[in-house]
Design brief:
The protein is of the alpha/beta class and about 375 residues long. Helices cover about 40% and strands about 15% of the residues. The longest helix is centred in the middle third of the chain and has 18 residues, at about 225-245. Bound molecules: ligand V47.
Length: about 375
């Protein structure tokens, strides 16, 4: 029987040769405790694609409502219609938030929220329109595939039509949320009521066909097993082979506080770094892997820049989903601090916009420059 060391050595040879690794290889990496070997391999791929750059952006989050028809076990953000915590932002509040973000030099607004029992699709279209009226230059990255599927149900229109209407209002791209864990053994338990795996993948397929870019996520560190994570990554890799429309993958570390799974421990530092590294290795066709500092904590996100990640997201303000679930990270990190952390990790800090154009900045004024191309996404053995 092959030892752990010999299995990792065989995988390392494939990675060095630029060959695709298999489901079994992924599971073997999950079973390995050789964190250094995992980090070294992931770093090789990371540097092959993104050299020594460490990307960040300047963004703000808006969560227009926390009222949600679904009750996902991991979610500490949602509220019932009559819950005293329930809120829905109106036009003035959305516009104020967008104008504030613009005034602070944000290039992106990340908008996601609950699926309100009573709000019509038009409200969600208006949110995008209000943002663009208040801050026309800002890129609107809005609504997860789960939200898009919900809009399609309440509006009785195909997702293509829903996306078209949102694009007409000013939508620029889709965030990667709502993916959780695709495997039915887990999905059915933690969020069985909401958009299925097939529906999630199909929304992104449709978006990519319309020329939109999107991100993808995986919520790890709860009830899933290693093979569920590898299965998740392979399903994303297959869709990316088909469309090429994903930009960034973001592994999301589960935060248990105030959720219905608050008896579970938080994922450990080792799990965070292993998941980051394995994601980089499995997703050989994704240009970017993001260490979302709000979720991971700033210190782990910084170390993750040597474990496969090339991006640490933004200077996020007004984030609610993780902070309700116990994230102890601050609401905002200054640009100077982000640049210092990236530089101290031995990387060259580069501000990017949502679609990975290099940003040139003079205070809060900015301009998007050339696209950041990732050189070799051709992988042998697909
Ligand atoms: O889908 C919810 C997760 C996601 C918890 O695309 C939780 O650039 C941990 O997808 N503990 C939404 N996670 C956020 C998201 C995201 C974040 C940053 C960047 C991008 C991007 C996307 O948050 C949800 C769910 O998977 N989530 N509750 C929790 N208690």
């Amino acid at each position: 029987m092959a030892t752990e060391a010999s299995r990792v050595k065989a995988i390392r040879e494939k990675v060095e040769a630029g060959q695709r690794i298999s489901f079994e290889d992924g599971v073997a990496l999950e079973e390995s405790n050789d964190l250094f070997a995992l980090g070294e391999m992931a770093n090789l791929v990371r540097e092959r694609y993104n050299g020594n750059f460490g990307y960040y952006n300047v963004n703000t989050h808006i969560n227009p409502t926390n009222v949600c028809v679904y009750k996902c076990d991991f979610c500490a953000f949602r509220a019932d219609l009559n819950d005293p915590r329930a809120y829905t932002m109106d036009e003035a509040q959305i516009k104020e938030r967008a104008a504030q973000a613009h005034g602070r030099g944000a290039t992106e607004l990340h908008i996601v929220g609950g699926l309100h029992h009573k709000l019509p699709f038009q409200y969600y279209v208006d949110v995008v329109r209000w943002v663009k009226e208040a801050a026309p230059e800002i890129h609107v990255k809005a609504y997860t595939a789960v939200e898009i599927e919900w809009f399609s149900k309440i509006e009785r229109q195909p997702t293509r039509e829903i996306l078209r209407r949102l694009v007409d209002a000013g939508l620029g791209s889709l965030p990667g949320g709502g993916a959780e864990i695709f495997h039915p053994e887990v999905r059915d338990q933690v969020c069985g009521a909401k958009a299925s795996t097939e529906a999630w993948l199909d929304v992104h397929r449709t978006a990519h066909r319309l020329g939109l870019h999107s991100n993808a996520t995986m919520l790890y560190g709860h009830i899933e097993r290693p093979e569920h994570r590898i299965d998740h990554l392979i399903r994303l890799r297959e869709l990316q082979d088909e469309t090429g429309g994903f930009q960034t993958f973001i592994p999301l570390a589960f935060h248990p506080d105030n959720s219905r799974m608050d008896d579970l421990p938080k994922p450990s530092g080792v799990m965070d770094l292993k998941t980051m590294a394995i994601s980089r290795l499995m997703l050989d066709n994704f240009p970017h892997i993001k260490a979302y500092w709000v979720m991971l904590g700033i210190k782990t996100a910084q170390v993750a820049l040597s474990f496969g990640a090339d991006d640490i997201d933004g200077t996020v303000v007004h984030e609610k989903i993780y902070h309700e679930a116990g994230a102890e990270t601050p609401q905002e990190v200054t640009v100077a601090e982000i640049r210092r952390l990236i530089g101290e990790a031995g990387r060259i800090p580069v501000e990017r916009d949502t679609l990975y154009h290099r940003v040139e900045r003079d205070g809060t004024r900015w301009a998007a420059r050339e696209h950041i191309d990732v050189p070799t996404l051709a992988v042998a053995g697909k």
